[in-house]
What does this fold into?
Amino acid sequence: MSTAATLAAPGPRLGLLGWLTTTNHKQIGVLYMATTLGFFVVAGVMALLIRADLTVPNHPIVERQTYAELFTLHGTGMIFLVIAPFGLGLANYILPLQIGAPDMAYPRLNALSYWLFLLGGLVLMSGLLTRDGAAAAGWVAYAPLSTTGSPGSGMDLWIVGLLMVSASSIMTAINLIATTLLYRAPGMIMWRIPVFCWDMVVTSLIILMAFPPLAATLAMLLIDRRLGGHAFDPSQGGSAVVYQHLFWFFGHPEVYVMVLPYFGMITEIIPVFSRKPVFGYTAFVLTTLAIAGLSMTVWAHHMFTTGAVVNPFFSAMSLLIAVPTGIKYVNWIGTMWGGAIVFPTAMLFAVGFLLNFLIGGVTGVMIASPPIDFWAEDTYFIVAHMHYVLGGGSLFALFAAVYYWFPKITGVMLRDGWGRLQFWLMFVGFNATFWPMHMLGLWGMQRRVVTYPALPGWGTANLIASLGSAVLAAGVLVFLWNLWVSLRLPVPAGPDPWGGYTLEWATTSPPPEFNFETIPPIRSERPVFDLHHPGAAS
Amino acid sequence: MNTTQSVLLGSAVFALAVGAIYWFVSYESAGTLMLLAMAAGLAMAAAYLAAVRRQPPVPADRSGISPADAAGEPVGVFASHSAWPVVLALGCAVGLTGLIYGWWLALLGAGGVTLALVGLVRDDRATRSR
It folds into this structure.
């Protein structure tokens, strides 16, 4: 039997065999995050190639097929192998610490989840090595483009890889829910767990509702392609529209799988650097639940233009999501309001998240209205919208989280000066890249095109977007440099460099194998703050 | 009813209500079925928690208790290392790509999966008996 106080010192250094066989949640969390960084670089290089191709009108630098492979793997990679799994990876590391647990509930299942994720990602990308090239049907892989329209084995590898990744996500979701329900420290009632943990529990519930339909859809797609099935073949009694229903029943909740964890991350960061408790803890939790519930009912707003769905129903449900999201903004601003705000890099990225996500949210409300969606469908307006949500939103929150928890995970600080430079390069670069796409979309530029005509303004807007992407990439390079410098010339962090509120700051950096020597009393959602400020707590 | 049950049951009622409304405004079967399946899954989880509620509450659910009060109580059994998860994942990868490149590869993968599952069960028994 193990207890929470089994080890007091950080665990031993791991060799290759140790990393291959580890079942400890912290090592698996590190593996997840390092792997997502690797996939981020690969998918990011693909994005740079796309932007390079579009810099000048009528002068593509890659073949049409190569371009289709690039945007397919860029989208799939960023969504399935970077943004979504980073949240799960960070939760792997942080959630047990925040609730005072010694490990995840099912350590071996946790390891299996990671290895399925890694191998699934590699299988998915391995299509690039095949004779016919990788999958090229877009990240949504609509049938029949993904069935009869994509004869090469790259498409099959994409399907198999995603099947493995989806199985991995389902296992991780089960593990996160079980850990939170069963292994909270004594006194850590559900209404005291950190908002990040609530967000991960709700995200896990979404995964359990949404990913099985994805897995079933992928299986049917593979059967159609390899075993003579006709599920999505209208000429044989199948239905391509059903594919869209099944895919988007997963696909829209997936957006929230990529957003809710990041809401949770900045909800941990903003109070600490505002020197205030979170404003409206209960509202945060209830709005997260409301967003999750509504997210399951809006899938067909991606199908407005098919003419095969009830547009008013899906429009109304989609517009409703803005309400709980807006309440969250009130909570975040209320948390900062009147606080003694400081701006280390993590807080800069958190504020960057608030600004960028707001733009993505507002354009989301616009295209939730069918008449506007009819105009914007499949144009660069949609590309701008989704990148403001997932890039300017989730990605900025991702870097906020990295700067905030890196000292806990490694025991050393990331350099703040390099971090600030990275933030400003990324903030300017991101907005220069994606803001012009709103205009391009409204002017009628289609997405997923290898080149475009020299219509008025199109060349300039695309040039600005491509230059912006180079600045954005420079920001990422600064981050990689910062990682290198900070690990090579370590500045010790100590157990609690930020004056944090939650339990992970009550243990060493990095924590010992089973996380805690002692756990302080838990009387609120800020046990470490209560410990250090007993007067304020009473 | 504790917080977890409330969340699950509330979500199930929500999914059921939306599923019913959706059916009557659309008569579209795929979406209705998925919403009703979602309601059923959530209700099943809530029902399970209701069925086991007579067990004494875990220390985490008692708001007045401190971690120090539960010192010495067993928390759980946690494996620290196992080679079988990576073997199982490799078996899955090989087996599934066998559906693309040939049944011989699928059989090889199935063998790896079987070996890993046996290993995992033995591993788990060994950990619990320590």
